[in-house]
Design a protein that fits this description.
The complex is a heterodimer of chains A (about 325) and B (about 425). With about 325 residues, chain A is mainly beta. Chain A has 2 domains: about 110 residues, Immunoglobulin-like, CATH 2.60.40; about 170 residues, no CATH class. Helices cover about 10% and strands about 50% of the residues of chain A. Chain A is built from 2 helices and 20 strands. In chain A, the strands form 5 sheets. In chain A, strands 3, 4, 6, 7, 8 and 10 form a 6-stranded antiparallel sheet that branches. Chain A is globular and about 95 Å long. Chain A starts with a helix and ends with a strand. In chain B, helix 3 runs antiparallel to helix 4 and helix 4 runs antiparallel to helix 5. Chain B has 3 domains: about 120 residues, no CATH class; about 140 residues, Immunoglobulin-like (Sandwich); about 140 residues, no CATH class. Chain B has a 5-stranded mixed sheet with strand order 2-9-8-4-5. Chain B has a 5-stranded antiparallel sheet with strand order 12-15-14-13-17. In chain B, strands 1-3-7-6 form a 4-stranded antiparallel sheet. Chain B has about 425 residues and is an alpha+beta fold. Chain B starts with a helix and ends in an 11-residue tail after the last helix. Chain B contains 9 helices and 21 strands. Classes of the chains: A mainly beta (about 325), B alpha+beta (about 425).
């Protein structure tokens, strides 16, 4: 009897050990690096089942000027015959503009999860970058802003909402030489919380170069408001009023741009901008720059009114 | 006193008394802190109420802005932060007197006064407050006759807060622009002058306009009139009646039921335009006259329309402001009619039902009348409004006049009667 009990116990311990070994074999190591160019890179290595299709979900916070931005990233890859995988995804945009001190923080329950063969394992820690101390110098060129302008009306923005921003410009005379217009810009969105506190956050629209042929009098980069080219950048709204709390935006947005022409044509340009938070309009959380999302093609999802036109000498 | 006496008792009693004293001191500090906080809240609420009242009164074109602002200074609570009334007094000290050396109507100063109070309000509420932007209200001459300009004289530009920026002037030509800031003189914070003669400004047949800039943007243009000038196309545009704008003002003070019977409800909507954008400033307040109940009050700017990006909105027809004020009864929803010539046809107020304990549902919806405005092309041409204003106030070169008059024939008669928004009635 005693022997039978010992053997049953032994089998149970053995099974438990096998199970534990199997679980322990699934590993995920994630390392995030970031630069003051407001980009981050993710490297994920680990081991799952042989030849498994692997999904990795990562989330962490970026803190700038007292505002916390939630960053999420999904990566798909494949494990080899030994179950190993190794993937690097560079060139991801960080929110907030990356001026001054940029801090990174994770979560007590881990920042990453691993999905393969229908199973999701959570609680993996990621190695996040040390704080960045970025220069606040503006790029060369002249700086101006438009707004605040509330073309989108009164918005109730939620943490994680995709907010897209775009602009267009046109030469006012048709006798300018060919030139490249470089635009570095950002959107600032002020908000008020339910408890009366206020703040603002920034969506970095990046730096873009536009080659304009001599004499061209078309709106650049496009005159078609439905084209994805009319959007310059996007980012997710932070948890400015705390996790899950709505940020009340009634002031609209301010678009600040630094522009340079090479060569300088000495010509006047007209400028305008737009922004969109489809989720705040009840249209789903859509990134208007994401071509893989068919919802972005609908005018009521990513259609937005232009601001007033301003003239830049 | 109690604490001193406690020291004379036995050790046990002393310990008890010491504990009691500590507790009393702590409680006293807590009560004092709570009282300070309550006082600060009351002061803020009372200050906002005074500001909101002044903002409402200043929406009325017939209001005397000086009287309204002085009354506001007198009505601020005694515990108000001195910076608030000081700010209002500073505005009054800087505000130019319309007529005489300041060639803009009083509507302009009233509008700036209202904006100053709206900024003050936003500052108190820790809302976003952008940098102060100057505004141009008039230029004399309103358009520059190239023949006369070459003989000398000055171009006078009037506005407000020019000292808050670094104004520059560019001469816009058909193929670009050139900086002529060297000829610009700041006479005061409300008056800039551009020297025209002595070679300060080299005008040619290519000259199109003069652009006053700050912050790397042209904020006001003065057309240059020549015999070869082309009048811009101008048209009357319409936003059909029926458009609605809504607003829910935040709670300013009190924690009682909102808008109970006997409360005063008031609201106003003011149209504003610049560049090719039309917007409305909407304000609403609900307050118990006794001052004991909750006060809901605030303003917001509602975007209404942008016309084509290569056009400029130069005027709007009709009255630009609608106001309403009434004492509410016991209905849960109130309807009030607006005036036919103002921007609002009907006001609807709601959120007064007993269940609205926190008042978030208090709201106002304004149904707008048809809005008609003048838009003009902005492509190196001369606005008909600018030409007519120049013609009204100056003797123009006969050849220029003949050429431009002949182009007026195709312009809508309604547009020909429009004057610049802030022009003095008697130039």
């Amino acid at each position: 009897m005693f022997q039978r009990m010992v053997s049953v116990l032994g089998i149970a311990i053995g099974l438990l050990a096998i199970s534990a070994t199997s679980t322990m074999a699934h590993t995920l190591n994630v390392t995030v690096t970031a630069t003051c160019a407001c980009e981050y890179s993710v490297t994920a290595t680990g081991n799952t089942d042989a030849n498994a299709v692997v999904g990795i979900d990562l989330s962490f916070n970026v803190i700038q000027n007292g505002v916390t931005y939630l960053v999420t990233k999904h990566i798909d890859t494949n494990a080899d015959a030994s179950g190993n995988f190794n993937v690097t995804v560079p060139g991801n945009t960080l929110p907030g503009g990356c001026a001054g001190t940029v801090e990174f923080s994770g979560f007590s329950g881990g920042e990453a999860s691993l999905t393969f063969n229908g199973t999701t394992e959570t609680g993996f820690s990621a190695t996040l970058p040390s704080s960045l101390f970025c220069s606040e110098t503006v790029p060369p060129g002249k700086t101006f802003d438009i707004g605040p302008s509330s073309m989108e009306g009164h918005l109730l923005m939620r943490p994680g909402d995709w907010i897209s921003g775009g602009y267009s410009f046109v030469f006012t005379n048709g006798s300018h030489p060919a030139t490249t217009v470089t635009v570095t810009s950002k959107l600032t969105l002020p908000y008020r919380c339910a408890d009366g506190t206020t703040g603002e956050f920034v969506i970095n629209l990046g730096t873009h170069n536009y080659d304009v042929p001599a004499g061209d009098k078309n709106w650049q980069p496009t005159g078609d408001a439905n084209s994805v080219l009319s959007w310059a950048g996007s980012g997710t709204a932070p948890a400015g009023c705390g996790a899950g709390n709505v940020m009340d935006n009634s002031k609209g947005a301010i678009w600040e741009a630094t522009i340079a022409q090479n060569p300088d044509t000495g010509s006047l340009l007209n400028w305008r901008f737009k922004y969109r938070d489809p989720n705040a309009k009840g249209k789903g959380n859509v990134n208007c720059l994401d071509l893989s999302d068919p919802r972005r093609n609908k005018a009521d999802v990513c259609g937005a009114s232009w601001s007033q036109t301003v003239k830049d000498p | 006193m109690v604490c001193e006496r406690s020291r004379t008792t036995a050790r046990r009693s002393t310990a008890f008394a010491a504990a009691f004293c500590l507790l009393a001191v702590a409680a006293s500090a807590a009560v004092s802190a709570a009282q300070s906080e309550a006082l600060a809240d009351t002061t803020l609420g009372d200050t906002l109420r005074v500001l909101d009242n002044a903002i409402y009164l200043l929406a009325d074109p017939s209001s005397d802005y000086r009287r309204v602002m002085l009354d506001a200074v007198a009505a601020f609570p005694a515990s108000v932060d001195e910076a608030i009334p000081a700010n209002v007094r500073t505005f009054l000290a800087r505000a130019p007197e319309p007529g005489g050396e300041f060639k803009c109507g009083v509507d302009f100063v009233r509008s700036r006064a209202r904006n100053a109070l709206l900024r003050l309000r936003d500052t108190l509420r820790h809302e976003y407050v952008g940098p102060v932007e100057p505004t141009v209200c008039y230029a004399f001459p309103f358009a520059l006759d190239v023949t006369r300009a070459q003989t000398g004289g000055w171009l006078d530009i009037y506005g407000y807060d020019f000292d808050r920026v670094s104004p520059e002037m560019v001469l816009v030509n058909r193929n670009g622009y050139q900086d002529v800031t060297a000829a610009l003189v700041a006479r005061s914070h409300y008056h800039l002058a551009l020297k025209l003669g002595d070679g300060a400004l080299r005008l040619s047949s290519e000259s199109v306009s003069l652009g006053l800039t700050w912050g790397h943007l042209i904020h006001h243009s003065v057309s240059i009139l020549q015999p070869t000038s082309r009048l811009c196309s101008a048209r009357v545009e319409t936003i059909p009646a029926g458009r609605t704008v809504s607003y829910s003002p935040p709670r300013i003070s009190g924690d009682t039921l909102p808008g109970r019977p006997g409360s005063t409800i008031r609201a106003d909507a003011t149209l504003d335009y610049s560049s090719n954008k039309l917007e409305a400033t909407i304000c609403m307040a609900a307050a118990d006259p006794s001052g004991r109940a909750a006060v809901f009050s605030g303003c917001t700017i509602e975007f209404l329309h942008t016309t084509d990006p290569d056009r400029v909105i130069e005027a709007a027809f009709g009255e630009l402001t609608s106001q309403v004020s009434y004492v509410r009864g016991d209905r849960t929803r109130d309807l009030q009619n607006g005036r036919p010539r103002g921007p609002v046809r009907q006001w609807a107020f709601s959120g007064f039902q007993p269940g609205a304990l926190h008042g978030e549902e208090i709201s106002m919806t304004a149904r707008l009348n048809e809005i008609r405005f003048v838009s003009t092309a902005d492509d190196g041409c001369v606005s008909p409004l600018a030409y007519l204003e120049a013609k009204r106030t100056l003797v123009l070169d006969p050849a220029t006049r003949q050429s431009l008059d002949s182009q007026l024939k195709g312009i809508d008669q309604a547009i020909l009667k429009v004057r610049p928004r802030f022009a003095l009635t008697q130039p």
